[in-house]
Automatic annotation (TrEMBL):
Organism: Occultella aeris
SUPFAM superfamilies per the UniProt record, alphabetical: HAD-like
Residues in the signal sequence: none
E.C. no: 3.1.3.-
Entry protein name: Phosphorylated carbohydrates phosphatase
Assigned keywords, A-Z: Hydrolase
Length: 257
C-alpha cells in the first residue's frame, strides 16, 4: 500500500527561517539601503504573513514610504518589491549552496524510502521556486529532487496559505486521491491550508511554531527523527500511528487510517 506525500518546504525540509530567509532578507535590506533589520522576534511576527514579497510589502506603510523616499505608485512599489525579492532569493540560494541549512532529521531518509517504494511526492510552498529546489536538492541530491512528481512554489496560486489553493492544485496536478494523501507541514498556516483542502496533516514543529494551535493535525512531532540521531518526540497523536523515536513510512500510512 502506498500514499501520496506533499511536503511544505521551509521548516519541513530544512529549518530555513531563522538562519536562512531572515538573514537573506536583512542582507537585501542593507544592500538596497533600506533601514530595516528583522530580529528573531520581528521575524516570528512576519511568519504569520505567507510569502516573501508579501512580508516585505507589509513594511510599506505610508509613514515608512514617506520617511525613506520610496515610490508611492502601486506599480512602482510592486516592481521595487520584485527587485528586492529577486536579490533576497539569490542570497538565500547561496546560503543553501554553502551548506548553511542542512535538511531536518528524517527528511532525507523518508524521501528516499518513499521514492524507492514508488510513492508520488510533491512540494507545495509559498517560497520562490529557486529557493525550494535549492533546499530539496541539498536534502536528497539532484537526481531524487528532479524525480519529484510536482514542485509547486511561489506565486503558482494567487491565494497563499492558509488558503487551501496550493494543496487543491497539488491534488489536481498529481491526480491524487485525497483520502490517500498526507501533507507534512510545520506551521498553523500550512496546517489550515492542508485541512482546508480536505487532507490529513502531520506537523513537524520548530522553534517558531511549536506553541501554535494544532488541533487539526493527525500527528504532531518535533521532527521525523533519525536512527542514531535526533529522536522524534511525539507532542500530539490523534490517529492510528504508534511511532517510536523515528517516524517511518508505516507510521505515515497509519495517519491515513
Amino acid at each position: 500500500m502506498s500514499a501520496t506525500l506533499i511536503f511544505d518546504c521551509d521548516g519541513v525540509l530544512a529549518d530555513t527561517e531563522r538562519d536562512g530567509h531572515r538573514v537573506a532578507f536583512n542582507a537585501t535590506f542593507e544592500h538596497f539601503g533600506v533601514p530595516l533589520h528583522w530580529s528573531e522576534a520581528d521575524y516570528a511576527t512576519k511568519l504569520q504573513i505567507a510569502g516573501g514579497k508579501e512580508r516585505m510589502a507589509s513594511e510599506l506603510t505610508p509613514e515608512f514610504v514617506a520617511a525613506n523616499n520610496l515610490p508611492t505608485d502601486r506599480d512602482e512599489q510592486a516592481a521595487m518589491i520584485a527587485a528586492w525579492h529577486q536579490d533576497k532569493t539569490a542570497r538565500y540560494t547561496r546560503l543553501v549552496a554553502d551548506g548553511a541549512l542542512p535538511p531536518r532529521p528524517g527528511i532525507t531518509r523518508i524521501i528516499t524510502a518513499a521514492q524507492d517504494a514508488g510513492w508520488p511526492l510533491a512540494v507545495a510552498s509559498t517560497s520562490a521556486e529557486a529557493s525550494v529546489r535549492a533546499i530539496l536538492t541539498q536534502a536528497v541530491g539532484q537526481r531524487r529532487a528532479e524525480a519529484f512528481d510536482a514542485i509547486l512554489a511561489g506565486d503558482v496560486v494567487p491565494a497563499k496559505k492558509p488558503a487551501p489553493d496550493i494543496y487543491l492544485l497539488a491534488l489536481e496536478r498529481l491526480g491524487a486521491d485525497p483520502s490517500r494523501t498526507l501533507v507534512i507541514e510545520d506551521s498553523r498556516n500550512g496546517l489550515l491550508a492542508a485541512t482546508g483542502a480536505g487532507l490529513r496533516c502531520v506537523l513537524t514543529v520548530n522553534g517558531y511554531t511549536r506553541t501554535e494551535p494544532n488541533d487539526e493535525a493527525v500527528l504532531v512531532v518535533t521532527s521525523l527523527g533519525d536512527p542514531g540521531g535526533e529522536p522524534a518526540l511525539v507532542l500530539a497523536n490523534r490517529g492510528a500511528a504508534r511511532p517510536d523515536t523515528v517516524i517511518g513510512l508505516t507510521d505515515l500510512l497509519s495517519c491515513l487510517e
